[in-house]
Design brief:
The complex is a heterodimer of chains A (about 260) and B (about 675). Chain A contains 11 helices and no strands. Chain A is an all-alpha fold and about 260 residues long. The longest helix of chain A has about 30 residues. Chain B is α+β, with helices and mostly antiparallel strands and about 675 residues long. Chain B has 2 domains: about 230 residues, Immunoglobulins (Immunoglobulin-like), CATH 2.60.40; about 260 residues, 3-Layer(aba) Sandwich (Rossmann fold), CATH 3.40.50.300. Helix content of chain B is about 45%, strand content about 20%. Classes of the chains: A mainly alpha (about 260), B alpha+beta (about 675).
Chain lengths: ~260, ~675
């Protein structure tokens, strides 16, 4: 049993890495720039958004490109993770039957793929931090903690979505709407202070906004995020992970029957 | 014509929103349409909720087009700069300057507001009754948005100034001009002081102008005065009644000044905050509604399932209870499998009815089938194994007794690697396909949703011993693949138990699990990893796999370009590589590839057999089974019909096939 466990973990890692490399290869299978798009895309988006929001809407956010980029990369992490993981079980139907590993490996591999992608986007992000002369501070070390929170919350969402997607494919479209709402309520490109007090309260409940806020606080402003942010993120992590895992476990066997 | 030239410039209201400290600096009008030959006034307002303190605002204009006449603190007429400077501020919510210009020529220009700084008014220290002194609140600097420009359009005067038939634009310009004409600096200054005492809104200053001033001069323009308002002013006017309402509801404790600020807040903030809040509350409501609906669906579904389960249990208990109606269940199942019509879709009626109906129809079926395989055997297999087991050996027509119900025999002489005990697999097939979510909900509420229960496997038991090559036969859809999936662990049986070391099991099905976008090499690793090979193992055996699949020249090729034979060859090679799998389950893979490869794969299977591995083969090819297997399992419609020597089982199977053909 012990032996099995040990080799199991190694095998687990191997499978996840294989699945991930496959996802990435697939994603950029037809593009000539390939993985470089992971780097370019957020940069281009940053330029466009900075132009739009600084020239057209004359928002006066200090260091808007960084403000936006921080929000954008965190948002993309969550977005791609939950969105791609949603179809993980259905897409890998044939592999799922063969595999002796737990089924959630496939969900995790999609989330991990999003994380790898996030890693690539971090390259331009760090570059931009230097170009825009954001003062390096100790609190930047908290950034990975924020990413960890983001991962946990994404995994929770992914479990739930992937399970439900097997039974109820319409959830894909429903979720895209939910995602849109979440995005506009995440203050990716506007300051929260421009909202009314009530809206701010609502936005403060949004886990994605909390993640973005967390990242901005520790990277841009060199502050340790407030206690309530930690608390809420913790609660969100526990809730999403709990619900996701519970739903997945309960329906695990039905998944294979349905597929 | 010149009158028509006085076009109304619809520009965004040139208010400057200062988000941080809420200080706003703006012109009285969004745009100005004036005519040459007369003065015109530009009201500059500074509004700050904290009280306007020391401030400095720079105003730029084009000295070539406009001539500055007064109203500011000081001005540089050469470069076109006017400064509004106050070292103290009035401490009220707003402060107003009225600048006077005279147009020099026709043209379009603008007045540019460029705030330098505005401090909040320092509130003087207050002494409370008990003697405590609240110190003076420090002045705070307000942060400003960018500069703003109010466009100014200058046209030639119209000949018939007071003509009623004039176009609106011209008319506006006239009245504006008239209004402005009587204005001088002193009056403007006076106004500034009187402003707050009057309790009138600054935004209405222009109205005021056009109403008051013309009033002193000529009645006609006084009447047309209100028309003079530009859009923003009109907006203010609209808001006004509401504000007074608000004031009343506040309990009357707010001062007129407050009302003023409110009326100014109205147009300023309405576009920003109110719709935001409004829309998003709605969105949240929608989300809540949707979430609630989903919850309801889930809840109802789970309740329905519970009910189905309970009914089933009741049924089982009933039939196990000794009443000899066992056939009922069996035939119900048989019926369900065979009958894909909608006959049973309305099974939301009490279950017992259906069962009886099915029992009857089932009885007929039983008679049809009887000559072939004996009702006793059917009954025995389908129901409590414990009860029937003693008779099992006698009843089976063929096969070695040892194999018929191996579950009975406690003596384990060889290593049992797979033990399938009383496995039942039940699927729920939606009998009614709703046309949409709405329909689904309606039908669900009406309790019209029903599932046809399908037993893919029904109380199947047999054992597989180490080194055996077991062939599994049966017609299409008889549950063979389901059985394999259960053995490999992909599915969990509804009831019953499968004992097998999952780590040793490997399921090989045709062409599945390949990613067409990846190269063959990548697929080897991907598939290998999923099958359970470690990386080092794959590295070691990679060449072997490639050689066996005979794909040496194609490994960097994308699998989507492969022929189906190549894909299955590769699949077979990966699955049988090395010694990872002790129990190999082959689902229709032996008929893979060309003649040569088939021979090769057979040879490899045989090699495996010799190395003591256990193989489960599903095949429709009798030849394969007869040639390779040491044992054969015949599953028909989810029921284990026969286990035993391949020759005998195949013979029985063929017999059934031909008989089936005859009856049909």
């Amino acid at each position: 049993m012990e032996d099995k466990k040990k080799s199991g973990i190694a095998q687990y890692a191997f499978v996840i890495s294989e699945l991930t490399s496959r996802e990435i290869k697939r994603k950029y299978a037809r593009s000539s720039l390939g993985i470089i798009w992971s780097v370019l895309n957020p940069l281009l988006m940053m330029v466009v958004m900075s132009l739009i929001f600084s020239k057209m809407f004359s928002r006066n956010i200090e260091n808007f490109p960084i403000y936006y980029l921080t929000g954008q990369i965190i948002w993309t992490l969550f977005d791609t993770a939950s969105n791609s993981a949603m179809t993980a079980l259905v897409d890998n139907k044939t592999l799922l039957i063969k595999a002796k590993l737990p089924k959630h490996t496939f969900i995790l591999s999609r989330v991990y793929t999003a994380l790898v992608n996030f890693g690539y986007t971090c390259i331009p992000y760090i570059l931009m931090l230097m170009i825009f002369r954001v003062h390096p501070s100790v609190t930047m070390l908290l950034f990975p903690v924020g990413v960890l929170f983001a991962l946990i919350i994404s995994i929770g969402f992914s479990y739930l979505l992937a399970t439900e997607y097997v039974f109820f494919a319409d959830i894909k479209y429903l979720y895209s709407v939910v995602l849109r709402v979440l995005m506009y309520m995440s203050a990716v490109f506007y300051p929260v202070t421009s909202l009314s007090d009530n809206m701010q309260k609502v936005v403060n409940l949004n886990p994605i906004y909390l993640l973005i806020h967390f990242a901005r606080e520790c990277v841009m402003y060199g502050r340790v995020p407030e206690a309530w942010v930690w608390l809420r993120l913790g609660i969100w992590s526990v809730i999403s992970m709990g619900i996701g895992l519970a739903v997945f476990k309960v329906k695990e066997n039905k998944i294979m029957q349905t597929l | 014509m010149p009158a028509l030239l006085a076009m109304i410039l619809m520009i965004l209201k040139p208010n400057i929103h200062v988000l941080a400290a809420e200080a706003v600096i703006y012109c009285g009008s969004a745009s100005y349409e004036i005519e040459t030959g007369s003065d015109f006034n530009v009201g500059i307002f500074i509004r700050c909720d904290e009280g306007v303190g020391a401030h400095c605002v720079m105003i730029g204009y084009d000295p070539n087009i406009l001539e500055y006449k007064g109203g500011g603190s000081f001005a540089d007429t050469e470069s076109g700069l006017i400064y509004l400077v106050d070292e103290v501020g009035n401490g009220l919510n707003k402060q107003k300057y009225m600048l006077v210009f005279e147009p020099r020529m026709e043209g379009v220009t603008g007045i540019c507001l460029s705030p330098q700084y505005v401090f909040t008014y320092p509130h003087p220290e207050t002494v409370l009754e008990d003697g405590t002194i609240i110190p003076e609140a420090p002045a705070e600097e307000c942060v400003f948005a960018e500069d703003d420009i109010a466009p100014v359009t200058i046209t030639k005067p119209v000949e018939t100034v007071q003509d009623q038939t004039d176009a609106d634009g011209g008319h506006d310009a006239d009245t504006q001009q008239d209004a402005d004409s009587g204005q001088d600096e002193n009056e403007a200054d006076d106004r500034q002081e009187h402003e707050d005492a009057d309790g009138r809104t600054d935004d209405q200053a222009d109205d005021e102008q056009s109403i008051e001033e013309p009033g002193t001069e000529e009645n006609q323009t006084a009447v047309t005065g209100p028309d003079d308002q530009d859009l923003s002013d009109a907006g203010d006017a609209d808001v006004k009644p509401d504000e007074t309402d608000a004031e009343v509801s506040d309990g009357g404790d707010s001062m007129p000044v407050d009302a003023d600020t409110q009326s100014q807040d109205g147009p300023d903030e309405t576009p920003d905050s109110e719709p935001w809040l409004y829309h998003h509350t709605e969105v949240w409501v929608y989300i809540l509604v949707i979430a609630f609906l989903l919850l309801m669906i889930g809840f109802c579904q789970s309740r329905y399932e519970l009910k189905v389960k309970r009914r089933r249990r009741e049924l089982y208990e009933k039939y196990f209870g000794g009443e000899f109606e066992e056939n009922g269940i069996w035939f119900e199942k048989e019926e369900e499998k065979e009958d894909y019509s909608d006959e049973f879709t309305d099974s939301d009626e009490p279950e017992s009815n259906t069962v009886h109906a099915q029992t009857e129809s089932g009885a007929e079926n039983a008679q049809n089938e009887e000559p072939e395989s004996g009702a006793a055997e059917i009954a025995g297999e389908n129901n409590a194994l414990e009860n029937v087991s003693h008779n099992a050996g006698d009843e089976s027509e063929s096969g070695e007794e040892e194999y018929v119900f191996p579950g009975e025999f406690l003596t384990i002489e060889r290593d049992k690697v797979i033990s399938i005990e009383d496995v039942t697999m039940e699927f729920h097939l939606a009998a009614y396909n709703p046309s949409g979510l709405k329909d689904y909900i309606i039908q669900m509420l009406k309790r019209n949703i029903s599932y046809r229960r399908l037993f893919a496997l029904y109380h199947v038991s047999f054992d597989v011993y180490k080194g055996e090559i077991v062939g599994i036969i049966g017609t299409n859809g008889s549950g063979k693949s389901t059985l394999l999936k259960i053995v490999s662990g992909a599915l969990k049986p509804t009831s019953g138990k499968v004992e097998v070391d999952r780590k040793k099991v490997q399921l090989l099905t045709l062409g599945t699990g390949f990613d067409m976008e990846l190269t063959a090499r990548e697929n080897v690793y991907l598939n290998g990893s999923i099958i359970g090979y470690s990386k080092s193992f794959l590295d070691e055996h990679y060449n072997e796999i490639v050689e066996f699949a005979e794909l040496q020249d194609f490994m960097e090729e994308k699998v989507k370009n492969f022929s189906s034979g190549m894909v299955s060859r590769l699949g077979f090679a990966i699955a049988t590589a090395g010694d990872a799998a002790e129990i190999l389950i082959l689902d229709e893979v032996l008929s893979v590839g060309d003649e040569f490869f088939r021979k090769k794969s057979l040879a490899r299977i045989k090699e495996m057999i010799h190395s003591g591995r256990t193989v489960l083969i599903v095949s429709h090819g009798m030849g394969t089974i007869l040639d390779n297997c040491t044992k054969c399992v015949w599953i028909e419609k989810g029921i284990l019909r026969m286990v035993g020597d391949p020759k005998e089982v195949c013979e029985a199977y063929r017999k059934m096939e031909t008989e089936g053909a005859e009856t049909a």
